[in-house]
Amino acid sequence: MAAPQQPSVEAQLQQLGQARELVMSDPTYWPQVLQGTLPIITSPVIEFRRWGADFLAETFSSPVVTTDAKQSLALQCLDTLLRLVEEPDAGILKSVVQCCASVYPMIFRYVCQNRNEADLWNKMSSLKSKILNLWDAAPVGVNLACIKFVQRVVLVQSRGTTDPRLVDKFDTSLGSVPAAHPLLSLPSLDAEAQGLLDRLLSILHEENSEPTVITATLNNLAVIIKTRPPLAPKVLMAVMNFNPFSGIGKPLTTQNRLMMLCMEKTVRILLMNILRSNPNGPHVGKISMHLQRLQQSKAELSEQISKKRGAAFQQDNDISKRAKTERPIAPQPVVTPIPTPPPPQVPTPTPPQPTQQVITGPMSLAQLFTLATDPAMALFDGTQLPLDMVVQIVLGSLYSIKPETLNTATAAIRDRYNAIQVKFAPLPSPATGQEIIKEDEVQLQLGEYRLPPPQPIPPEQLRQAAIDSIDRMFSIIENFEKISLINRKSKLGVNRLAASNWDREGWTSMIVRLPTRGIYADTQPFKTEDGEDKFSLADLIRERLFKYVTADFRGCMDIAVAWLNEEWYNDKVQAQTEEGKNREPQCEKWTMKVMDAIFPFLEAKDRLFMRMVAEIPEIPKGLLEKIKLLCLDPDRTHLGLNTFHYLASLRPPVREQCMDYLEDLYKTQPDLRKQIMKMLQKWRPTALAIEGSPDGTTTLTVPGSGTAAAITPTHEQVVSS
Amino acid sequence: MAAVQEPIQPGATAVSSSSDGLVTEEDFPLKFCTVCASNQNRSMEAHLILSLAKYPVISFGTGSAVRLPGPSIDKPNIYSFNSTTYDEMYRELKSKDPRLYSANGLLGMLDRNRHIKARPERWQDWKVGVPRLNEGVVDVVITCEERCWDAVIDDLMNRNSPLNRPVHVINVDIKDNHEEAIVGGRGILDLANMLTRAAKEERKRAKEEGRKFERESVDGRVPEVLAMWQEKWPNLPALWSVSYF
Questions:
Q1: Taking residues A119-135, what's their average pLDDT?
Q2: Cβ–Cβ of B161/A62 closer than 8 Å?
Q3: Residues A580, A684: one domain?
Q4: What H or E segment, with its residue span, contains residue A567?
Q5: Of A189, A386, B17, B100, which cross-links A157 as Cys (Cβ 3.0–4.6 Å)?
Q6: Are A56 and A165 in the same domain?
Q7: Which of A111-120, A325-334, A476-485 is the least confident region?
Q8: Model confidence at A563: pLDDT above 60
Q9: Coiled-coil ranges per the record (chain B) (predicted)?
Q10: Is the ipTM of this complex over 0.85?
Q11: Alpha-carbon torsion, ordered A142, A144, A145, A151, to 10 deg
Q12: Would you call B153 and A219 a contact, using CB atoms and an 8 Å cutoff?
């Protein structure tokens, strides 16, 4: 591939890129292309070496290249890798080490099967030692690759599971080494792996390990624990001795805090992964306990953060801080280096305290119930733990505790309690020297605590909140299915209670009664900053109701009627009170507004309108005037007249007024005479008797309605002529 | 390649960023992958934003199936990963109830998604390393929910890292709604920009000094960059771990 004329580096790189694209699209060319590029990879041009290292790493990690092809390629690449591993370039090294992590098991397996490949094995060994030398000195990126390489070496050079059913035949381990191999000595390989594992695990405990390297290590351990049972206890022990919160003493910067949380979470996922893979394994108990401890430390961390944020000036911090720093050194029965705090206090079989010791003065509840002798334990503030964990701990200890221990403990507490009750009168506090007790005393003498009254809400906000809640109520009504008016009516009749259940009717009653009964009195204008803004919540609701009702007056007729009735009732009630005398009656005003809004949309046969007119509480004069105008609209004459008819027959109080209008129409509108005559005949025959028609024709006086039919033809002739 | 059960068509999904010409590695030293539960809202919003900025990006979901809201909370629309296309979902929901699904934003989301790639893909079924149009691996995985981050870390542990290749897995906690997804997408773009800037700086330094390696990869700078980012975006809590493919 090296052209004789030495084209530019860019051009050659482009060529190499094309070669890579080719193998990407058809992996069968991969071995061929790699072999062709090997000489270029070690050329003096650093760009080529960079490209080559990446390509090598890619080759041995690619799932599309078969294992056999990889193995045979690996044999050819060792020299190249040996040369590249001397590079000072981090990018190249990262790829080379990654590549070696893939190659190592392949070479190992090959050497297992080919006893005489001493040369090959020596090359691999020297690669290995070079990488191990790099491990400490290299930058983080290379370090990450080294960690992976070491994990692979540990896996290869240790014993897998002895259970033949679980053995993965692609897994290379010491089990793959045939007996009496001239090159591979089991004890030394095993020892090397143990040493490397120790070095790997020491990352977790070194003072200055970077979180990058720590999380990378943690993420490599699951496989070792799961597939190398002999190594599992050691690894698990190291993981559990790792304290992700060791940085808690350092200044709590965002980065520190974030890194601690990241490391904790990585440990947690690792442990959960192990638990899940073997739920009945030997370490389950230990692991779940450790998970709980982590949770606890995490809670402490977040508490410390909130404390820092909250009260910088708080002096009492000293006590809790001391308690915190003391706790990690506090009794740790089994392993001393565990820096995570010990499991929280449970009623351990401590001998009950002599009762006379504690009845000397007022005491806190905590003191009353604490049986621990250890001061660090006694200082522990249980409220720092999340509630669910406390419940778990309590349940767990109740299950495991011996009944006698529990009984003696309870008895001790009971004795104390009785003793305190006897000596109820508080004595001056003895100087116990325990700061914490003083603090508790202060708390005990504080007396009743009342919440301070809430801040008054500014009117603007109040108003907005009111508007929002009203909107919300309307939206609730909207959400109910619209059922026909007939079906909607309650069957209970007068026994029905308004708003007894939360259906559409209930909400309707609620809304219409809000302005009329609920906050009717609230007509004081809100004071805003720029003077007085006249705003009444009741009027606001009325405005909303008005808009709501008129938007679909046929569908909301019942609401309109209910509302206007409530307004009428409220007007009457208000009129009887002193201050209500000057109040503007609302019923008529809003009736007319509603009517004004819906009139333009009435249709010739709007029975619902007629019903509405019949059901509203009061019929103002203006409304009759409007109905009269309706009669003059040729399109809707019928509706107008029918409404008059309806009102006259079903609402006797307005009958006379209706007749006045009809009479007037009869006189002025000859076109309507025929239709009006019937009604006048029924309720005001006098009008017909006296009336001479404006167009000159005379009408006969007809006593009794029976003859009306006889006149009609005459009149019809008159009209039509 | 354990943990991979269902074969998916390699290269069947288009990575939109790579469709508009040669994206040289020099411009984009880091390749990204976004992950959420259903590979619909958060990961796709981030996928779009990153690919509009020309980043090489792919996306996945960690859930067991693609779950979209339905007419009620107990009737979600469930599709399988790797098979049903965004386009099919779009057309099905549109025929079911165009009003509902345009009101709740699903149609808009699916319409956006079908222009980005063909179908939602499941993280656990991703055959890492198998070439997809251009690339088979990424350098940074960004999840959008802690649950997904857990699933990714856990899955990588189970896969036993056949590639031996380090990868930064970062969580950016985003609530699963349209508005938060947009904010989260911006945050993710900012994170990608900051990481890329750091990577370029390291690369440049490697070129200039040439000799001895001094932090010549971005890996060592991730904690610092992430902390800086977190201070800028305090409402998107971050998590991070270095794992391996």
A1: 93
A2: no
A3: no
A4: helix A557-576
A5: A189
A6: yes
A7: A325-334
A8: yes
A9: 189-216
A10: yes
A11: 140
A12: yes
Amino acid (one-letter) located at A353: Q
Give residue A150's region: left, alpha or beta (phi > 0; psi -120 to 50).
Answer: alpha
Does B235 contact chain A (CB < 8 Å)?
no
- Number of A to B CB contacts under 8 A, please give it: 147
What beta strand segments (E) does A448-602 contain? 526-528, 531-533
CB of B208 less than 8 A from some CB of A: no
Listed by start position, the domains of chain B span 25-63+122-244, 65-121
Compute the distance between CA of residue A564 and CA of residue A592 in angstroms, rounded to an integer: 10
Chain segment B81-100, per-residue pLDDT in tens: 999 999 999 999 999 999 99
Chain centre to alpha carbon of residue A134: 46
Helix or strand holding residue B43 (H, E): helix B42-52
A187: buried, middle or exposed (CB in 10 Å: 19+, 13-18, 0-12)?
Answer: exposed
Write out residues 140-179 of B within 8 Å (CB-CB) of A.
149-150, 153-154, 156-158, 160-166
Which of B12-21, B30-39, B126-135 comes out lowest in average pLDDT?
Answer: B12-21
Tell me, what's the pLDDT at A324?
Answer: 41
Across the interface, do A90 and B217 touch by the CB < 8 Å criterion?
yes
Q: Domain B25-63+122-244 in CATH: superfamily? A: Response regulator (3.40.50.2300)
Lowest mean pLDDT among A263-267, A383-387, A565-569, B155-159: A383-387
Task: Write the CB contacts of A436 (distance below 8 Å, at least 6 apart in sequence).
Answer: A319, A379
Chain B interface, best mutation among A24, A153, A168, by max B CB count within 10 A: A24
The verdict on A34 and A138 lying in the same domain is: yes
